[in-house]
Amino acid sequence: MDTDAVSSRPQTANTVPAEYEAWREARWEEIAGPHGKAKVVANGRVAGRDPVAIPGVPGQWQVTEAGTLTVSATAADGVTVNGETVDGTAEVPSGSTLGLPGGRVGFAGGAGGFYGVVVMDHEALARSGLTGIDTFPYDPDWVFEGEYRAAPEGRRIEVGRLTTPRSTEAILAPVDLAVTIDGTDYVLSVLEDMPGQRLVVFTDETNGTETPGIGRWLVLPLLEPGNTLTVDFNQATLSHHHLAPAVFTCPLSPPGNHLPMRVEAGERALVYTGT
């Protein structure tokens, strides 16, 4: 990948750690690779016994009493599960590949009665004109050691969600992240919006000017309370919401996750053809 694809600012190669360059490569792959987020045109969550319609996806989706994901459709709907046409109700094992009308493909995954369905159109990236991600220059001063602190078991925090119109949701927040910046201790709530994904959604004084008003993300590892971890704001990312607002209805920053300073590190904006 050409480094210009992820940053519009020149950087001196010998001052940027190889680990950071590798992260940038992986980040662009996450966005624009074969299964990149920029190619997602629909997604949905399925949990519970009631049938669910996923916008832009044929069929009715639901979880059986045994915890299995199913889809109900007619042959005319053009839905396949692992290459088999659905005409009635079919089980959708976790990890299944879905075929959908218009050459779109989907993937289903989950467990324990909670599933996600993601639909991709491999032409969506080209149609969007997305060419890269603008970032602040790498700055080692924005790398810290943090610590996970225990939260009350089963804690959920009411946060806004980027739906239309805006909504709120009580999202699981299993731990807090403690980090010291310029001698001041900050404790940030860590969300687990999807099983297995730890996420700090934070805001700072660059929001609305150099970075989006809705804040940015730090994606963190799954560790138990008491563990230390690297907190690298150079790896602060844009919300997936910017790629497809109707598809990615991401959470907003929880109360207390504002940093009263300019965090001049990490991603700033998506770059499109002609910008």
TrEMBL record:
It comes from the Bacteria. It comes from Prauserella muralis. This is Uncharacterized protein. InterPro entries: DUF1684.
